[in-house]
Design goal:
Blueprint: H1 2-23, E1 29-30, E2 34-35, E3 39-43, E4 46-49, E5 54-55, E6 68-72, E7 78-81, E8 86-87, E9 92-95, E10 98-101, E11 106-107, E12 112-114, E13 136-138, E14 143-144, E15 149-150, E16 155-156, E17 161-162, E18 167-168, E19 176-180, E20 183-188
C-alpha cells in the first residue's frame, strides 16, 4: 500500500500543486505557505503571507477537484494573511483595494472574499473602469464556516464566528456569532 499511496500523491497532489504554481503570475511575499492543495496567485498588486499559513486540507470536500485563488487585481491591491491561519479547500479572495485576514483565523471550505463589485451597479456606468472598492478586514481568532461569502467594506471583529452559508454585506463587532443571508448577530460570546 505504501507504493500506491506514493504514486497517488505524486500524480494527483504534487502534480496539481506544481501546475497551479506555474499558472500563477504573482509571487506572494513574506513567508512560504504550506500548500496542501493547489493555490493560484494572480494580479498586479501584493499578496503577503504570514508565518504558519496553510491552504487546503486533504480530508475535506473539494480537495481533489478544486484549487484556491488569490488575486490582487490592481497595482494598489493588497491581500495580507496573518500568522497561524488555516484555509480550507476552494478559497477565493479577489481584491481591488485591500483584504486583510489577521492572525489565528480558521476558514472553511468554499469561502469567497471580495472587496469590490468589480462593475458599477448603475447601468450607464457598467463598463467604466475603477468601480468602487472598500477594504475587507477579518479580525484575529475568527472562525469562518463553509460556503460563506464576505462582500466589500466588511469588518469582522476579533474572536467572532461566522456560520456556514452566511452572506456578509455589513460589519460585525468582536465576540459574536453571525449567521444567515443576510447575516445577523445570533449570539454574543
Amino acid at each position: 500500500m505504501g507504493l500506491i499511496k506514493k504514486i497517488k500523491g505524486l500524480l494527483f497532489i504534487k502534480a496539481r500543486r506544481l501546475k497551479y504554481s506555474w499558472l500563477s503570475d504573482l509571487r506572494p511575499t513574506g513567508h512560504r505557505p504550506d500548500l496542501i492543495s493547489p493555490v493560484l496567485f494572480s494580479g498586479n498588486g501584493q499578496i503577503i503571507i504570514g508565518e504558519n499559513v496553510q491552504f487546503g486540507y486533504q480530508q475535506s470536500p473539494l480537495f481533489y477537484s478544486h484549487y484556491s485563488y488569490l488575486e490582487a487585481r490592481e497595482k494598489i491591491s493588497r491581500i495580507e494573511i496573518g500568522n497561524n491561519v488555516v484555509i480550507n479547500n476552494n478559497f477565493s479572495a479577489v481584491s481591488n483595494s485591500g483584504i486583510e485576514i489577521q492572525d489565528n483565523c480558521v476558514i472553511g471550505v468554499n469561502v469567497s472574499i471580495v472587496d469590490s463589485d468589480f462593475h458599477h451597479l448603475e447601468a450607464e456606468k457598467r463598463n467604466d473602469t475603477n468601480p468602487p472598492a472598500e477594504p475587507v478586514i477579518i479580525g484575529k481568532n475568527v472562525f469562518i464556516g463553509s460556503n460563506v461569502t464576505i462582500l466589500k467594506g466588511v469588518t469582522i471583529g476579533n474572536n467572532s464566528v461566522i456560520g456556514s452559508g452566511s452572506i456578509l454585506s455589513k460589519s460585525f463587532p468582536d465576540n459574536v456569532i453571525v449567521a444567515g443571508n443576510p447575516a445577523k448577530v445570533v449570539r454574543t460570546l
